[in-house]
Amino acid sequence: MKDTAKHQGLRNQLVSTLEQKGITDKAVLEAIKKIPRHLFLNSSFEDYAYQDKAFPIGAGQTISQPYTVAFQSQLLEVKKEHKVLEIGTGSGYQTAVLCMLGAKVYSIERQNELFKQTSNLFPKLNIRPKHLSFGDGYKGLPSYAPFDSIIVTAGAPFIPQPLMAQLKIGGRLVIPLGEEVQIMTLLIRKNETQFEKHEFGEFRFVPLLEHKN
Question: What distance in Å separates the CA atoms of residue 91 and residue 93, rounded to the nearest whole number?
Answer without folding.
Answer: 6
